[in-house]
User: Fold these one by one.
Assistant:
Number 1:
Amino acid sequence: MIGEIKAKIIKPARVVTPQCCAPVEPPTKATMWRRDRYLKLRPSFNPDACQRESTVEIDGKPYCRLHAGGLALDKWLKGELVEKGQS
Ligand SMILES: [Zn+2]
């Protein structure tokens, strides 16, 4: 008799999200290098923007966690975010 002892692990399906829209400055010494390289690697992505996929949306724009974190911190320091639970 054949019986299953441990359930087979099924990976969740990959969720495709839009590219992070944060602009990224090219390297100062080889300005075209970044653009050429990323255009080859991911032709559907904008080579002048961050190459990560987005995980959050801020003000209607998609951002990866790295850039969203910086943006959220800027908003926090400007007082645009309100601490939850305070009344
Ligand atoms: Zn990003």
Number 2:
Amino acid sequence: MNPPIVKFTIDGKEYLAAAGTYIIDVARESGIFIPTLCNIPGVKPRGACRMCTVSVNGRFMAACTTPASDGMEVRTSSPELEDLRRAILEVMFVEGNHLCPVCEKSGNCDLQALAYRYQIMVPRFPFQFPHRTIDAANPRLVKDHNRCILCKRCIRTVKDAKGRSFFAFRRRGHKIEISIDHEMADLMTDEIAGQAADICPTGALLRKEGGYRIPIAERKYEKVAIGAPDGTDTR
Ligand code: SF4
Ligand code: FES
């Protein structure tokens, strides 16, 4: 049986969707830009980054994990929401080591693109300068924890034919980090390494021997700004 249709508004305009459809998916299909970092279309959402926070009947909720429901009033933008998103980005920048000018992902990085969109200059929070590791043991992939925002996109999507993930979290609390599963590491092909580098929204996963295949100035966000006025979410 088909799910019932629900009627709701986004920024004052009426929309219909099958019950259970996430707000982010309705917005994306309708050309409404809501910033995201951990969300991947078609993959079960985890609500890890909170960049997609919107106002739902006056309450702040993650658009990627909140299904649309009858009578819902969604607001995608307000000074408070924009400041919250800016604060989330600032936290990400101060709690990691994001050296954009020397990062191979520059121009292809969702975090950097959002920082430009939100005009991040000097974060309101103090830089933490944490000591983070770089793991270059894998022959195909470099894992730079300095740039990881713990979005879990790699864990959730980079899998083998049996559904086993190539990535996992290790450690806990503020020491938590992504690791390449040792048993799976030998199975990593060039294609899988490329998939991992592409799905990572930052430069935390980079292909070995594959830098600068796309020249500077021809990269994704150097051509189309994230959430460009034509309504295209370029991811
Ligand atoms: S390595 Fe990349 S994709 Fe994986 S959790 Fe970190 S930022 Fe996200
Ligand atoms: S995109 Fe919704 S919480 Fe990350």
